[in-house]
Amino acid sequence: MSVLPKRYFTPEEYLILENQATYKSQYMAGEIYAMAGAEPVHIEIVDNISFALKTLFGDRPCESYTTNLRVRAEAADLYTYPDVTALCGEPVFDRSSRPPALLNPQVIFEVLSPSTETFDRGEKFLRYRTLASLTDYVLAAAEFLRVEHHARQPDGSWIMTGYRQPADRVPLRPRAGELTLAQIYRRIAFPGGPAGA
Hints:
alpha+beta; 6-stranded mixed sheet
């Protein structure tokens, strides 16, 4: 059986299609991937992280955004919508796209689901790492209490630290502060007991 050749899109074609679509999609190296809806627990975790960051930042010159903000990693040929994005300082946007895409996230959170976990841990993380601004990549499991924090080191390497207890604190750099797992999993109960307060 013959295989039909794949259709590759330019970033400009993707942006045109994305602006006309009734759903969000990611762009990676010439291919477009429709984004599926999320489970309620996924949405709750995203909301918890966003709320915790807004509270943590207060009046400081830091900002967080949820899944409606597109991020562009130009060197990696990627447009995507992280679950939560944060930065301290002045955001830089690619004004050539509508709506504009953030170019300088410092912290990216992805909530893992069975359908996206392999991609979030692998190819997507490799492409995110081309963002010179990125200091922290945080993966939160949606099926049990677990957070993995990938922190960029001064030499450009990454170190992963795992967290499993509600009182564990995930430090975010630079100047962003820290979140506890109890905040991330607030009011979410997993089999075997509640996760957070």
